[in-house]
Design a protein that fits this description.
Strand order of the largest sheet: 1-4-3
CATH topology of the largest domain: Arc Repressor Mutant, subunit A
CATH architecture of the largest domain: Orthogonal Bundle
Number of helices: 9
Order of helices and strands: HHHEHEEEEHEEEHHHH
Radius of gyration: 22 Å
Distance between the termini: 57 Å
Helix content: 40-55%
Number of strands: 8
Oligomer: single chain
Length: about 290
């Protein structure tokens, strides 16, 4: 016999909302350490469909349980991917938006909607196993190093995105380790012509993030570089470019200088920057070979 679902009282709902807010606050507080920041960076890079706040929650809960997050999805989504949640696994809690149509005193729809958040439950792939007799869907995208030319097709759309912001892009030989720069006064992005295509892609993403308004006037240099290079890491990971060795130590190094003190604000800013570049550049089909 099916168990009857018990509706929560108003008090219980309020207590649950309070608990959800406390989890989010704790997750944001966790980011104040460079280690916590690096965990959030990796999590946001892997899960484009989740908000910045939910990535904080996933990163913190996985860290507390000793889980290295790789792929997170709901129970039914895992079934469609040919996997099922292992017996006894405890879900990760995130917050899902729910839209409700408002009604007037006569019970008729007013045309307005109200959004509230409820707890939703997801699981990491490590908490699942293949369904018997089913070939699971591959989850890992190919990842290419910066030394190659596999992502050269992204240079053109990145140049176009820079142009949409009012910037021209030029290439020249740049001695030393600097891969390029963004000149906001001249509205120009300069890229090292001698670098491999994948490295130029990374630099273009970094400088486009600067062109979106992350400068040294509105932020300290350390803050600006944390924001920009974290967004770069996120976009590159979504494109399948392996930049962990460059970005995570770089970001964590700036964090030790005190750049993470407004980290929750930065997380939202980074998320918005990454989504803007992702939508302009990654949400396109690569040219056919």
């Amino acid at each position: 016999m099916a168990r009857k679902h018990r509706h929560l009282t108003d008090r219980e709902r309020a207590e649950r909302r309070c608990a959800d807010r406390e989890r989010l606050r704790k997750a944001a507080q966790e980011l104040l350490s460079s280690e916590g920041w690096a965990r959030w960076v990796r999590t946001r890079a892997m899960f484009r469909s989740y908000s910045a706040g939910n990535c904080m929650l996933i990163a913190l809960q996985c860290h507390e349980r000793g889980i290295e997050p790789r792929h997170v999805a709901g129970f039914r989504t895992w079934l469609t991917l040919g996997r099922c949640v292992k017996s006894g696994e405890r879900a990760l809690r995130i917050l899902a938006p729910v839209s409700v149509k408002e009604r007037d005193e006569r019970g008729e729809e007013s045309g307005n909607t109200r959004v509230f958040f409820r707890a939703a439950f997801v699981f990491d792939v490590s908490q699942t196993e293949p369904l018997p007799g089913v070939q699971p869907t591959p989850l890992e995208p190919p990842s290419q190093p910066l030394c190659g030319d596999s992502h050269a097709h992204l240079i053109e759309p990145l140049n176009g995105f820079a142009a949409s912001l009012g910037y021209s892009v030029s290439s020249r030989s740049i001695p030393g380790s600097a891969g390029g720069w963004c000149d906001r006064k001249a509205k120009q992005i300069v890229i090292d012509a001698d670098a491999p295509a994948n490295a130029r892609v990374r630099t273009l993403i970094h400088e486009c993030a600067h062109a979106l308004g992350v400068d040294y006037q509105h932020y300290s240099r350390a803050q600006a570089e944390v924001i920009v290079d974290t967004a770069t890491f996120v976009v590159c990971a979504g494109a399948g470019l392996a930049v962990d060795g460059e970005s995570v130590p770089y970001v964590a190094g700036w964090g030790e200088e005190g750049a993470l003190e407004a980290v929750t604000q930065f997380a939202e800013t980074i998320d918005a920057l990454a989504r803007r570049i992702e939508q302009a550049v990654l949400d396109r089909d690569p040219p056919e070979a």
